[in-house]
Amino acid sequence: MGQKQGRERLLTQPTISMHDTHSGPYDSSSKGHSRNSSADGQQEFELDRNLPSDMLYSSDRNKVTLDDFELLKLIGRGNFAKVMQVRKKDSGLVYAIKILNKRKLEQADQLEHIRTERAILQYVEHPFLIKLVYAFQTMEKLYMVMEFVNGGELFFHLKQERRFSESRVKFYAAELFLGIEHLHNQNIVFRDLKPENVLMDRNGHIMLTDFGLAKYLLKQDRTHTFCGTPEYLAPEVLLQRGHGKPVDWWSYGILIYEMLVGIPPFYSDNVQDMYNKILHSDLLLSDQLMTQEVQDLLIRLLERDPRKRLGSGPKGTSEIKNHPFFRGIDWQDVYDKKVVPSFRPKVRSELDTCYFDEEFTRQDAIDSIGDPSYLGASAQKAFEGFTFNSNGRHLRIDSGDRIL
Ligand SMILES: Nc1ncnc2c1ncn2[C@@H]1O[C@H](COP(=O)(O)OP(=O)(O)OP(=O)(O)O)[C@@H](O)[C@H]1O
């Protein structure tokens, strides 16, 4: 089963992010990215108090390196990453490993994003957020070992089925809500919610992945980076007036709409036209495809003024949780994964990669050898603290990556 058709939008609408807020969304310059990878020297590995049992049996208790893994399949590529399915040699456990080339990250001004992604992944612990198990590095590469989720991207299933029933949408929306709410409670904005970043596990539960654009808000409650994925950008991001947690509730509304209808509400082949629609067009709702409850939820989530958007009021996220659309939902059951998914991917085992694009899985799973000498000691300093051991395609717009 290939995933090719599901990539169409990924190829046309990249995730974007620009730290330079002087360059607005109407800038049309772009930078291309290529990628290659390798295994070379090894670096330190920090033991964590809460090691999963698998780590305790690591061949070398003080170091985890690529040598500890058997590379099984290439399963994906992002703007800067190559993702492989791997098996840890000593425990036999299967993981996904995300491999990033330091030079490419540096050239594309992505260091901050990768540091944030790595820090957030280590920090968050939630049933619907992907878990980082190890992070290590060599002179030229960064490696993030995560739990492996092989039920396919929500995007893939949506493209297969065109749209989901409202009860199915409610199930995914409820799980996602808890994941996003958890991030917001930690003062983290996700900023790249889209069906490509929602993976399905083999039982049909969802898992939010790709924290490359996530941001700690720290003391301020707004940030100014122009980033996200065109169809999912909130008006306040386009207007560059500073944005915060409400951007995730806007994207959440877009995602719910897309799951029900098959395309996002303000979609256009032309990105400028799409921005225009996001800022000005009426939201078209269908009585055939949507109950009154979900229509009301969408109207409130897709409110252009972030201060008035559902989830931003005095009652915070409980405004969403208590909306009539979710009436009857037992949130504790959702959290405990006691709600049985109506759809279960046909995955035979944890090794099964049938839901990944054959374009990737038929390629050899290799980590190419590169030249470790290109990054001097001072540049390497930027990656200090990356190493980690825990318990454990709409494309986006990214920093220095102006593709609008
Ligand atoms: N933990 C995982 N388990 C299974 N597959 C995964 C996992 N993490 C990533 N993938 C696959 O690899 C693809 C690329 O991963 P990811 O989106 O994290 O890379 P990225 O470079 O950050 O992407 P982007 O350029 O879109 O930001 C995903 O779309 C998914 O199909």
What do you see in this structure?
The protein has 404 residues and is an alpha+beta fold. Helix content is 28%, strand content 15%. It has 14 helices and 13 strands. The chain has helices at residues 8-12, 53-56, 102-107, 111-123, 154-161, 166-185, 235-238, 246-261, 271-280, 292-301, 318-321, 331-335, 358-361, 377-381, and strands spanning 15-18, 69-77, 81-88, 94-101, 132-137, 141-147, 188-189, 198-200, 206-208, 215-216, 226-228, 388-389, 396-397. A six-stranded antiparallel beta sheet has the order 2-3-4-6-5-12. A three-stranded mixed beta sheet has the order 11-1-13, with no helix packed on it. A two-stranded antiparallel sheet has the order 7-10. Helix 6 (166-185) runs antiparallel to helix 8 and helix 8 (246-261) packs antiparallel against helix 10 (292-301). The longest helix is centred in the middle third of the chain and has 20 residues, at 166-185. The two termini are 32 Å apart. Mean pLDDT is 79; it is low at 1-14, 18-61 and 390-404. The chain binds adenosine-5'-triphosphate.
